[in-house]
Amino acid sequence: MKKKLLSLALVSAMTASLFVGCGDAAKSADGNDQATEEAAGELTWKIGGIGPTTGGAAQYGTGVMNAIQIAVDEVNADGGINGYQIAFNFQDDEADAQKSVNAYNTLKDWGMQILEGTVTSGACTAVSAETYNDRIFQITPSASSTDVTTGHDNSFQICFSDPNQGTVSADYIADNGLAAKIGIIYDSSDTYSSGVYQNFATETQAKGLEIVATEAFTSDSKTDFTTQLQKCKDAGAELLFLPFYYTEAAIVLTQANQMDYAPIFFGVDGLDGILSVENFDVSLAEGVYLLTPFAADAEDEATQSFVSKYEEQFGGIPNQFAADAYDGVYIIKEAIESANLTPEASNEEICEALISAIQSVNYNGLTGENMTWNAAGEVSKDPKAVVIQNGAYVSVQ
């Protein structure tokens, strides 16, 4: 998304955030909706969200915020949850752990009952410790590290866990004969990237694939990948596995092109967003594969309705994190209705009831059919493969 378009989307999101659905509960970052509710004498469900709407991962957080808003508006227009409207408050954390905890405290002061967030794994891990201590139910649309849920019985994931992504990626590459010699570049300072890499490396051995080069970088050295690329090229890597985020991936593809190195590039959900990187030549992403639970070109009615609403309200095509977040609102709704809860319940009562209720949910959404959750907070659903063709994601078998 170009900078101007992203700015317009943010303005639209902030404008939309002033009112939630058809109820009287206004949403604002400073919790003014609470006063509105009390003045009107009405209770609402208070759902908070946290993620980056500024900084390098802003596409993720902005997409999540926008998609939750769409779902909240739909639910409120349809009568709410058990007859109560939803108030939604989203806070920016810039994908920073400490800022995410600060955002969480802001939402807690606002009166948040349920958290859909946070968006990135490192920030979400920090916040999960807080929600666990406070007994606030938490479901993240996109944080994939197992650290998010380990030891936190109140935290659940809508996206695939890191180990799952690494394993399924290796299976797909082997089963579809994409390449035999694999090079890996990963961020050793990031739990998300390292977690995906570790399971990918294990599964490639089981599948008989050869890893000819494994190159790491850190958050302090993520602007120059020429050394890593040269080692992969010299080793004869036919495919490069890139388990990290779209901003760094855009640099890798640009520098590989400058070196006349053109392997197959294969990423996981972190690459979703690469087509919207400012000043990136999207033609360099032609033929890039990534695994995702959502394909915006899917022809089912639910996907097309969501994509149409997103484009109309915010501009651009929603990514998988937006789709996960949209599903998250309806998953929360189904779990609340299953537990027959109302907003009068305490946060602890809501949390304990939803921990039990979500494990009986079998949800069909944009990002998967028959989604279920285990006691560890992990979701079960099938990934979809897409390849970038003519500047767009195209579903492949």
Question: How is the CATH topology of the largest domain named?
Answer: Rossmann fold
Strand order of the largest sheet: 7-6-8-9-10-14-15
Specify the biggest β-sheet: 7 strands, mixed
What coarse outline follows from CA principal-axis ratios?
Answer: globular
Percent helix: 40-55%
Please identify, by name, the CATH architecture of the largest domain: 3-Layer(aba) Sandwich
Give the low-pLDDT segments.
Answer: 1-40
The tally of domains stands at: 2
Number of helices: 12
Number of strands: 15
CATH superfamily of the largest domain: Response regulator
Helices and strands in order, then pairings?
Layout: H1 3-16, H2 32-40, E1 45-51, H3 58-77, E2 86-92, H4 97-110, E3 114-117, H5 121-134, E4 137-140, E5 155-157, H6 162-175, E6 181-187, H7 191-206, E7 210-217, H8 226-234, E8 239-242, H9 246-258, E9 264-267, E10 289-292, H10 301-314, H11 320-339, H12 347-358, E11 363-365, E12 368-373, E13 379-380, E14 384-389, E15 392-396
Helix pairs in contact: 1-3, 3-11, 4-5, 6-7, 11-12
Protein architecture, described:
- There is one protein chain.
- By secondary structure, the protein is of the alpha/beta class.
- It folds into two domains: 3-160 and 300-382, Response regulator (Rossmann fold); 163-292, 3-Layer(aba) Sandwich (Rossmann fold), CATH 3.40.50.
- Helices cover 43% and strands 19% of the residues.
- Helix 11 crosses helix 12.
- The longest helix is centred in the first third of the chain and has 20 residues, at 58-77.
- It is globular, with a radius of gyration of 21 Å.
